[in-house]
Amino acid sequence: MAEQASELTLRTRWLPGPRLNLSRIVLFAFFVILTLGFVFPLYWMVISSLRPEGRIFVDAFEIIPSALSLDSYRTLFEEEPYGQWIVNSIVQTAGFAITALFLCTTSGYALAKFKFRGRNLLFILILVSQMIPFHLLIVSLFLMIIQLGLVESYFGAIIPIAASPIGLFFVRQYMLSIDDEMLNAARVDGANEYQIFFSVVLPNARPAIATLFILFSLEYWNNLLWPLIVFREAENMPLAVGITRLINQYQQSYDLVMAGSTLATIPIIILFLFLRRQVMEGLAATGTGMK
Amino acid sequence: MIVFLVFKVYPVILAVIMSFQNFQGVKSQEWVGLTNYQNVFELVRFNQALANTTVYTIGTLLILIPLPLILAVLLDSGRVVQSTVFRTLIFLPALTSLVVAGTVFRLILAEDGFLNLLLSSTLGIRPLRWLETADLALPSLILVATWRWTGINILYFNSGLVNIPRELYEAAVIDGASPLQLFWRITLPLLRPTTLFVVVLSIIGGYQVFVEPFIIYNGGGGPGDGGLTMALLIYRTAFTSFNFGTAAAMGVILAAIIFVFSLIQFRYFGVFSRED
Hints:
The complex is a heterodimer of chains A (291) and B (276). Chain A is mainly α and 291 residues long. Helix content of chain A is 72%, strand content 0%. Chain A starts with a helix and ends in a 5-residue tail after the last helix. Chain B has a single domain (2-275), classed as MetI-like fold (Orthogonal Bundle), CATH 1.10.3720.10. Helix content of chain B is 70%, strand content 3%. Chain B is built from 14 helices and two strands. In chain B, helix 4 (66-76) packs parallel to helix 8 (134-161).
């Protein structure tokens, strides 16, 4: 009996007193209803994409629809370059995540393990750049990619936004914990700095790299503003820009827009369910806010 | 490292320079001093955008601080069965692109959309024209924000909560403290750094809100510019009117606002606060 009581105290963080089952049931019901509210828009998106054309509003009272149709998905792939957008999104997202990781790990390593003049100033400068709103940069960045001839190119879409101060900070903090002795041992064994970086430093920072890879991918996949400025041609766009184009083109065809939104979202949610712990802990640790 | 400087520091300098210049097309420009800034503040639309964005930010703060805080405390209390499942499901909206959040809520908020259906069938409220009424633009946007960000803020509050030593609660319970007293006297004060962090993050995010109104109002400012935000106006000034100088000046003003709030954050947390 005493044992049971102490177990309960451990599980209870702040609610003391008699453990009324009623309060637990009420609390549970409250969270079920609340959670339904949060999940419902996603359900509505999927269901609306499956309704036959023109039935979205007429059948809105049917929470569980009686008639389903894949027509909107067919239109998406046959009349719009949706397949191309998926490919673009995957290629650009991978390119972005790898570029951003490369920048973070190399600079993070330099800032963590090498002593050079102005290092602290540089580090603070990079951190301060985190607070610059992207809208201050868009005009200058736009003029820059025009001058560099990078409009409509993957390079233009990826490189100007690939420098992530928060990511660099995260990597630097992680690399500070790598033992200097290990690096020196490698140097004594005759490894050059590149070998040390790729075969000693990177493998040791693997957890941080994996977390950042996921967060960077999510960031680019969901990003709208910069790709919207870089890409005007439909065949180069990633999904987020493509969906925006669908809205403008088919004002009232919600089924089509919802089908496009569903296909851009559901794979991410399924991936997330496998990587839940890493995503949520990574987010809590970096505090990026996720745009 | 050079990339950081090239794409962060240089564009800032360029933007500040441009805010003092008059652009004729992409190539030619001339110095015009403070004219751009004067123009900006004389623009009715800019003042409206500034007011809208401020109201939006305050609105999101009023909801997105207390709600996730209370939910996080409840989920952490050990009294909710399956709390991880709830946490995960409430977090799901954060995974969606803001574009998708925009399209879904365009559908739900439509005049014959689901929200009106729900309100009229349960509460008997007459259908509201959420997307076509100027005064309903900001509430609509705040609703979208609540949906999208609650899960993330719960996450932040939760990581603050697990750092509160459990012994404090046990000691207080032995001394006969009530649940409410525990919340006000222990949880809230010890959670202050986290709360402040989330507040600053929300302010910075709120002032930069762009994608949601851009999607919901088709790239415009919504009915009577009721949904026009600063970021949206900057984008339109730059890429619809091609008024780069004015857009840059607006960007500098937006940056100044965000800078002030960031300074508050730095002051209270120190530059290396997230080092733990």
